[in-house]
């Protein structure tokens, strides 16, 4: 959820259902519904980068700063007018007038795929790679009932077996390992424009981590951010997609949520990522 009204935040603009629907409607330039998801996604990203052309974000409700304000002053900040902007093109106008557009691109799969966007080296772009202990990631996915493998195949979680967890963990960690290797020696287009931060850092030091991110972006951190972070990292979870939770407890939750044989399956499959990031095997 975005708490900086100078930033337009797009939550999951690459969700496969959203992208496929846009392609069917010919809303992404240069591709059709017969093209691959990767081709559709990179074409849509080029469209956003070059033209601020955003097609009805699927999870529009996740951005509080695009909802109607409580006052004319809030609407001016959010839409540039005292009246609430309810038009379907409001996202395009917001993109053009905001200082920054932030996109959560987890479904792009690999950082190197950004290089497929024509003219990426000329885009005013910065990439933040958020990486998490694979055991925590896989634990959180158990709540969804299905492992989504590369956004195409569904693997039902129940009944959960070590063999099934290895398949899902490989899908995650192969991708993360590729991202780690790709960014260990940054290509020219990404030099000076990349940072990595861990879920542990953001959970245990939310204010300091937020400051690091804003420093990397060359932007001042909003005065309200400290209060927001404290409020949203020290409360109990209220749902899968809720942004409020006790972030310290979340770090350890996987230990009590998964059986030891499932944890070992993840550790075995993700050993390269875990070793590189310094995550130790679980000792019950």
Counted up, domains total 2
For the sheet with most strands, the description reads: 2 strands, parallel
Low-confidence stretches: 238-245
Helix content: 40-55%
The secondary-structure class comes to mainly alpha
Describe this structure in words.
By secondary structure, the protein is mainly α. It has two domains: 1-125, no CATH class; 130-279, no CATH class. 44% of the residues lie in helices and 9% in strands. The protein contains twelve helices and six strands. The strands form three sheets. It has a two-stranded parallel sheet. The chain has a two-stranded parallel sheet with strand order 3-6. Strands 4-5 form a two-stranded antiparallel ribbon. Helix 1 crosses helix 2 (37-51) and helix 6 packs parallel to helix 11 (260-269). It is globular.
Main features:
44% helix, mainly alpha, 284 residues, two-stranded parallel sheet
In short:
This protein has two domains: 125 residues, no CATH class; 150 residues, no CATH class.
Topology:
Blueprint: E1 7-10, H1 16-24, H2 37-51, H3 72-79, H4 90-97, E2 100-103, E3 127-131, H5 134-141, E4 146-149, E5 153-156, H6 162-184, E6 194-198, H7 199-204, H8 206-217, H9 225-232, H10 247-257, H11 260-269, H12 271-277
Parallel strand pairs: 1-2, 3-6
Antiparallel strand pairs: 4-5
Helix pairs in contact: 1-2, 5-10, 6-11
């Amino acid at each position: 959820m975005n708490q900086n009204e100078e930033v337009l935040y797009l939550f999951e603009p690459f969700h496969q259902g959203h992208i496929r629907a846009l392609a069917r409607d010919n809303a992404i330039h240069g591709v059709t519904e017969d093209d691959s998801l990767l081709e559709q996604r990179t074409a849509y990203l080029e469209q956003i980068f070059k033209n601020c052309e955003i097609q009805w974000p699927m999870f529009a409700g996740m951005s509080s700063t695009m909802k109607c304000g409580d006052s004319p002053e809030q609407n001016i900040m959010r839409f540039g007018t005292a009246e609430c902007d309810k038009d379907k093109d409001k996202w395009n106008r917001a993109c053009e007038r905001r200082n920054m557009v932030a996109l959560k691109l987890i479904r792009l799969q690999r950082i190197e795929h950004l290089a497929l966007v024509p003219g990426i080296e000329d885009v005013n772009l910065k990439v933040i790679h958020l990486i998490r202990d694979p055991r925590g990631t896989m634990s959180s996915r158990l709540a969804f009932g299905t492992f989504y493998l590369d956004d195409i195949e569904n693997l039902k979680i129940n009944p959960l077996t070590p063999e099934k967890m290895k398949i899902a963990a490989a899908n995650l960690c192969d991708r993360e390992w590729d991202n780690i290797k790709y960014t260990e020696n940054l290509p020219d287009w990404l030099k000076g424009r990349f940072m990595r931060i861990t879920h542990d850092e953001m959970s245990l030091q939310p204010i300091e981590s937020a400051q690091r991110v804003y420093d990397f972006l060359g932007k001042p951190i909003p005065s309200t951010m400290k209060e927001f972070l404290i409020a949203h990292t020290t409360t109990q979870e209220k749902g899968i997609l809720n942004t409020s939770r006790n972030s310290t407890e979340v770090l350890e939750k996987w230990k009590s949520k998964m059986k030891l044989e499932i944890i070992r399956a993840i550790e075995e499959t993700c050993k390269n990522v875990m070793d590189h990031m310094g995550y130790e095997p679980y000792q019950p």
